[in-house]
Amino acid sequence: xxxxxxxxxxxxxxxxxxxxxxxxxxxxxxxxxxxxxxxxxxxxxxxxxxxxxxxxxxxxxxxxxxxxxxxxxxxxxxxxxxxxxxxxxxxxxxxxxxxxxxxxxxxxxxxxxxxxxxxxxxxxxxxxxx
Length: 130
Prior knowledge:
The protein is an alpha+beta fold. It has helices spanning 2-5, 7-10, 26-42, 80-96, and strands at 13-18, 48-52, 60-64, 70-74.
């Protein structure tokens, strides 16, 4: 599941739309209740928006990429594992999408492509001898 840790490097925003009253959204509700905390823990700065609504006909996940590109996957009547596979597809699309260098909110952030192996502090913060 290392692709979950790289979610914020490939996707700028995730939106989940579902109807809480429909039986076809049961898997989506379960996905949100079981996976939301894990995704936010691994990607604290990624906007992960959950939008329940009574007028929504089909549950779907929409990913927004750099330069305004978007892709969506319909997740009606799917299990949690199948919804994670759909999200993984969206992340893989983001890997191939063109990326901006940085955003204003990233000022001061270290932009490391591999978030999993990122070490925020060097092992020896004072390499010089006094």
